Fold this protein.
Amino acid sequence: MRDAYHDSLDAITDELVSMSRLVATMMHRASVALLEADREKAEAVIESDVEIDSINQEVELAATELIALQQPVATDLRMVLASMRISTTLERMGDLAQHVAKTARMRYPDSAVPSNVAEQFREMATVADRMGAKMAEVLGSKDLELAREIEADDDRMDALHRQVLDILLSQEPGPVNQAVDVTLLNRYYERYADHVVSVARRVIYLVIGERSRT
Amino acid sequence: MRDAYHDSLDAITDELVSMSRLVATMMHRASVALLEADREKAEAVIESDVEIDSINQEVELAATELIALQQPVATDLRMVLASMRISTTLERMGDLAQHVAKTARMRYPDSAVPSNVAEQFREMATVADRMGAKMAEVLGSKDLELAREIEADDDRMDALHRQVLDILLSQEPGPVNQAVDVTLLNRYYERYADHVVSVARRVIYLVIGERSRT
């Protein structure tokens, strides 16, 4: 029974790893769509959101079945429940990538990012890519050191978020749609990074919980 | 064993009902804080967010214990898992109420809502109150008709959200901080309503799932 449990949990973990890679790719493409006003990439992101939603439903189903059939307790149960939560978080991250892509598409052929904050958004995109790659790696390897690095990346994202807001608030009144776009985009990147942190923290909590038991 | 399960599940449902009432009160106070520039109410909302976070953790713990000890399957298991998800959603709604309150506090003694969209925000606040009250009622009573009304309320919220955006985009460039505030507040109310819909849908899905089983 323990083996069947671990096989099923491994299958769920594999799904989470591929889901997280897909989400990271979506956000990367959304950023390219945004920064280079690339409409095809924007469309690709918007289309792949259904894929994320469907993997999320599969994970929910697989985790529910695993609990019903294997009746795990203690750390084993916490692991399955954490997988469900991580899947929900990844689904939200996919939504955020989609929001970024939709904003890019709406302004096409212009860029939704005005030049006075372009540098900050380019770095936010880089930080989001880095965080997404680390998250996928952490989900597979349970590497605690890497999981902890994610907090530092998030600090950088928060600093950039603040910078964009400061630039926005200090500028002369300009086109309102630009202010609206920048405000929302700024929030999407910040929320995306917050979600990566929450995934990393769940992994850290589980690994440490499991260790302290053995 | 079945009775122990139902007792525990009832206790969790009671927690969800009081949590949802607290969230609805927070959002109501946040709206008053926003529309009447009432700093005390804003502070009260910001303080009560820790309470929501702690109830959420209690629900998570109680649900995990319930699964470990009673090992429910099928609909019983889906009910417990749904309670955990609803609790997470309520926690997010508390965060949104807190964001509204923080925006109100930041602009105090001014109002963060400019007069040209005040009417829309007043109605958004009313719709949010109505939706919050219905959600608490639905969680306790599992009243499907009421749960379905929530979709219509959400349509109204979406229409108001759109109106605010239209007004914002059609106005002459003005103070950028106002555009930023209105953009984010508009999003907070819309997201809050989306969360109410997701709670209502979970309840509908569970009640119909249970019925189709009997």
Notes: The mean pLDDT of chain B is 94. The longest helix of chain B spans residues 176-213. Chain B touches chain A at residues 64, 67-68, 71, 73-74, 77-78, 81, 84-85, 88, 165, 168-169, 171, 173-177, 179-180, 183-184, 187 (CB under 8 Å).
